[in-house]
Every structure is written in structure tokens, then in C-alpha cells.
What we know:
By secondary structure, this protein is an alpha+beta fold. It is built from 4 helices and 6 strands; from the N terminus they run βααβββααββ. The two termini are 35 Å apart.
Amino acid sequence: MADPADHIEAHVLIESPEDSSVDLLQQSTGLSKQRIEHVMTQGAVWITRGRSTQRLRRAKRALRVGDEIHLYYDARILAEIPPEPTLVADIGGYRSPFRPGRHLAELGYPIIGDRMYGVSDEDGVDLHLTAYLLAFRCPVNDERAQYRL
């Protein structure tokens, strides 16, 4: 059985602009400040300001009253070493800001488990997506592009 400390989720509302994200998360979770700063660099800490939620990467980022910081700590996931990426094509010239979760939610098809754009509850299943096919019309040369793994 996994140790409960191996999986921690915390949501902390900022009540004072002098608050430090690391101090607040340390008080809320019991994790060390050093560990919290480390997992910030790994994408485990997020900030919501108004309607915008984004990764919180810097421990020194100024906070505002009403901001909410989120910690999604899973020791097993954070310890994983991702495999080397595979280059499927080297065509250069542009990058795609496509965010399937956002776009599908805007079309009325939210993804279950997508905490940012989809349908999720605290005890629900987390998002698990794997793309085996990527197809689109190139915005640079207007040609159809398709990649398979």
C-alpha cells in the first residue's frame, strides 16, 4: 500500500500579498521547503489568478490576495524519468499552440479528468491521453500534414 504522504493535493487561497507560496504550501502539506521548490520546477505547482490557471515555476513570484495556489504531488510520478522524445519530423518554421483539452471543451466535448478545461472531481480519474496520430493543415504552406507513432 502506498504511503499517504506519497500523494498530496493542496489548494491554498492567498490572504495577504506578503504570503510566500513555498511557506504556505509547507504549512499546508508538511513537505519541506526545499522539496516544494524542487517540485515547482517539475510542474507540480499551479496558480489561479481570476479565470487563468498556469504553472507556478518561481518560488519568488509575487502573489495577490485572492490568488489560489495548487500542489499536485505524487512521489511516484515525480520520480519518473521520461523517455527520450522521438522526432517524427524536422520541418521547422512554426510551432503549434494546439491545446486539445481547451479546444474540445469549447466545442462542447470536455475531456473527463482534465482539471483545467474538462470535467473533473477531486476523487475522480485523472487525465490520461496518448496521441498516436496527429493530422492538421499546415498554416505555413497550407499542405496536409500527418504523423503516426
